[in-house]
Batch of 2 targets.
Target 1
Amino acid sequence: MKNSSPPFSKQLDALKAEGAYAVLNKATKLETEGKKIIHFEIGQPDFPTPQNITSAAISALKKGLTKYNAPLGIMPLRRRIAQGLNETKNISVSENNIAVTPSGKTAIFVAMSSILEKGDEVIHPDPGFPTYRSLIDFLSCKPKPIPLLEETGFSFDMKIFKKNFSKKTKLVILNSPSNPTGGIIKLEDLEEIREMVKKTNCWVMTDEMYSKIIYDGIKYPSFYSFKSLHHQTILVDGFSKTFSMTGWRIGYLSAPASLIEKIDYFLTHTVGCTATFTQYAVLEGLNGPQNQVKKMVKEFEKRRNFVVSELNKIKGIKCQIPQGAFYVFPNIKSFKKSSKWIANYLLEEAGVALLDGTSFGKYGEGYLRISYATSMENLKEGIDRIKKGLNNL
Ligand SMILES: Cc1ncc(COP(=O)(O)O)c(C=O)c1O
C-alpha cells in the first residue's frame, strides 16, 4: 500500500517563500551556531504598540467583546476609517465603501480575487511587494512587471508602463510609498495613469500601507484622491505599520459599494470576520492621541538620514533618499556581483541580514533592501560591518 498523499492543487506551485522570511530563517540558524547577526531584513516597526491601543483591546476583552462580528467589520470602525480617508484625501466615501480585514495581506487577496479571472493581465511594480506577484500567479493571471526607476525616486518607467497597458489590462497595482524602495509615485505619473485608466474597464489597486510613514513634511500624492475614478479603484491600507501592530492582524480596503456588497460574502465564507477586540483597539488608535505615531515617524526620519548618508560614504554604493516607509534601496551595481551573492556574502561574512533586490522582482537586480526599523545602535554596527565586508571584496 502506498502512503503518498493525493495530488495538491497546481495553484500552490505559484506560491514561493517570501525573501524576508527565508533570510530570517537562515540568520536565526547562524545565531543558534553562535554568530551575532544584525537584522536589517525585517519589515516591521521596532516600537511597541501604543499603550492606549493595547489597553483598549484589554478593556474590550474584559467587556466580553470576544464573539463574531459582521464580516465587513464593526460599524464604528468602518465609519471612522471612511471619515479619516475623507479628511486626508479630500474625498467622500462612507462606511458602505469600507471592508475591515484581518490584515492588509487579506485585503490584497480579497481585492485581487474579487476582480481577476484566469488569463487577465496585471500591471505591477517591479521591484515590488512579493505578495502581488504570488497572487497574480496563484490566480493564473499574466504578470506585467513595470520597472521602477532609481533616477526618478523609484517611480514607474512610464514608457514601459504605456507599452504594457492595453485593453487586456485588468488591474494596475500601485504601491506608494513603496516596499521595497521607500519611493513615492510622482503626481504627474499618477495623473498619466489616471488618463490611461479612465478610458478603459480596468481596475486600479492602490496599496498605501505606508501612508502615515512619510518624511520631509511632504504630502504624498494618492491615486485614491482621484474621486472621478473611485468606481474603478480599490484602496488597501492597514495598521501594521502605522500603529506598530504587525502581530495583531488588521487592515482594510475601500472600494465601490457594489463591490463591498460582494466582498461581504467573500469574507463571510473565508475569514468570517476580523477579531472584534482588535477592531476596538484600532478604533482607539484612530480616535486617541497621535503623538506616538508622530514620535515613531520622527525617529524613522532621523534613522533614514543617518543610513543614507553613511551608505553613500561607502565606496561603490549609491543610495537615494526615500521619502516614505522604512526602507532604503541602495544601488550596488559597481561591485559586479549579483544582489543575491552580495546579500548572502554580507550575511555569512559580515553578519548582516538584509534582502537582495531580486527578492522583489527581476528589476531589483543591482540593489539591496535595508530596513532601518531597528535601533540606531544596530544601524551603526550593521553599516560598519557592511562597509568592512564590501571593502574586503
Ligand atoms: C506594501 C505592503 N502592503 C501590504 C503589506 C501587508 O501588511 P499587513 O498584512 O501586515 O497588514 C505589507 C507588509 O509588509 C507591505 O509592505
Target 2
Amino acid sequence: MLGEERLNEKARNISLGAIREMFDKASKMDGVISMGIGEPNQDTNPAICRACSEAMLKGKTHYAPNAGILELRNALSKNGFIAKNFFDPETEIMVTNGGMGAFALIMQCVLSLGDEVLIQDPQYLNFKQTVNYCGGVAIPVPTSFENGFCMQAEDIRKAYIKGKTKMLIINSPNNPTGEVVPKKQLAEIAKVACELDLLVLSDEVYGSLIYDGAEQCSIATFPGMKERTIVVGSFSKGYAMTGWRIGYLAGPSAIVNKMVKVQEYFNSCINTPAQWGAVFALEHPEFAEEIRLSFAERRKIVLQGFENIQGIKTNHPKGAFYLFPDISGFGLDSTSFCNRLLDEVRVVCTPGSAFGECGEGFMRVSYTAEKDKLLQAIDRIEKFCKRL
Ligand SMILES: Cc1ncc(COP(=O)(O)O)c(C=O)c1O
C-alpha cells in the first residue's frame, strides 16, 4: 500500500487542530451539550428543498456555467450581499463551493509564494490554513476585548510590510467573537487599505445574522474600496444550508473573470439543482429572517445566563451566533478550562487559544442549540465555575 511519502510536502504537513481531540472525545461521551459547533441546528426550510427537487425533475441536472447560473447571480446581486444592487451579476459575481470554496479560489488565484496576508487575531481557523496552504504567510493583527475584537488602523499599519503584504482579511460579523465592526472603524480600515494599496477580502458569510439594530455595512461600499475588495458570502449560516455547499463572491471584474476560469479546472461548476434551490431561497428572505429571529432569542438567553455567572466577563456581540467570554479569572488556560468543562459537566465550548494568541483566556460559545439545551448548558457552566 502506498503511503504518505507519495504526498507532496504541503499535504504531508497538514494536521488537524488541537481542538479536534476535544470534539472527538465529546463524541464518545453521553449527555454532552454542544456549544462548540459553528452551524445552525435548524434544517433547511422544506420549501427550499422542494424547489431544488422540482428543478431536478425539470431536468436542471446538467453542468452549469462556471460562474454559476445567471438567475442566481441576478438574485445575489439584488439580495445576497450586505450591499444590495451593488455588484454587476454578469461580470462581478460568481457562485462557489460554499464560502470555503470562495477562499480556496481567491487564495489560489491571488497569492504568490511568500505573500503576506493580514488577518485579525483571534480569527476563523480556516483563514490561516488556507493562506498557508496556498503559499502565503498569515500575519496576525492583534485585537482585544477592550476594543471589541476589532482591528485598529494603526495595528494594520504596524503589521504591513511594503512589497510583502498583499491582502487584508476582514470578517464581520465575526467568527469566533460574534462582533460586528462599527461603521466608523470600518471607514478607518478602508482608508488604511487604500493608503497601503491592499487587496481586501471581506468575509460576510454571517451578514444576515445581526441583532439589536446594529448598523451593518460592507467595507466594499467605502470610497476607493469597490475596486480593491472581494466580498465572500454563503447560504450556509443565514439560510441553514451548510450541507448544500453554496457560496459566492463578488469583486473587480478582471479578477472575477480569471477566477471563473480557474473554477473550470478545479470544480467545473457548482451543483446545479442546489443553485436553483438557492434562487428560491433568495426570493424568500423571510426564511432567513426566521432563522435570524430564532438566534436573536437564543442570544438573549445566553447573554443573560453568562452575565449571571460569577468570574466570567462576557462580550455583547451583535452578530453571528457566538459569544467570546473572558474566562481568564479562573487561572486556567483556555484549553484546560474547556477540557475540564467537558469532563466535569459535559458541555463543549471551544478554547479561545484555538483561534490565535489573542484568544487565550477566552472561549467561544456557539448558541446554535435549542433553547432548553442552552439553559441546561448555562446551568452546568455556572455550577462548574462555582466549584472552580
Ligand atoms: C467566518 C467564516 N467564513 C466562512 C465560513 C465557511 O462557510 P461555508 O463554506 O459553509 O460557506 C465559515 C464557516 O464556519 C465561517 O465561520
